[in-house]
Short-chain dehydrogenase
Amino acid sequence: MRDVHVQIFNSGMYYTKKYDLGSYWEVNQIFTREYTYDCYCPKCERGSVFTKMPEPHSIGGASIPFVDTIPSQREVCKSLTLHCSRNEHHTISFYFRLYKPSIHYIELTKVGQYPSIADLSNADTKKYSKVLGRTDNHELNKAIGLFAHGVGIGSFVYLRRIFENLIEEAHQQAIGSPEWDDSVYSSSRMNEKIALLKEYVPAFLLENRFIYSILSKGIHELSEEECKEAFPAVRIGIEFILDEKINKQEELQKRSAARQSLEELHARYK
């Protein structure tokens, strides 16, 4: 069930998903059953678990599947409200357009959300300013904001800039190495450049360097819809790379502090 609603909730505006007769149960579960959704709560100012309470549908006192309440060839607007587990008055609301052209399939389109994806994400991405810097952190938020407003290709442009800047940062570190050959690096493709920088880039980036080709293909070849569909996975990949950089930075800081403290103790007691 988790993947059913998370994909919809994390999608940008006007994302449309079609459900055939065999998958109507997914629509029923989204709108009627109880489940949870993990995300940032702007009012709590921290990550939280939001809960969707069950909403049984009935006609004449008899319980019926939600899908059966949608008339054929008519648009129906439906909202969902989820409540923060820390404070039930903190809510997230989603708004959908449902259309059943025939009894054989339903179109579900996300037409609204409050707080927006950008509102929920911007606070959560502040931590990345530690390793991105102000400009790239702004571009990450810009990418998320564009995606939230239904822009696919444009959001990829900003993600690719961030990826390229991460590679250039590693490149500048490598230049200081005596064995570094910059002429080989300059004549290499991005995939090859990352392999050459294996000592300077996060392990996850090295293992998943094809992310760059996905971003480039998105900008030059994929449609808006294809980019919007791919955006969440690519974003998670880049954020995992940034998480790894943060962890390494914190480890180095902790190592330095521990070394200094131990040296001071050694000097005191020797």
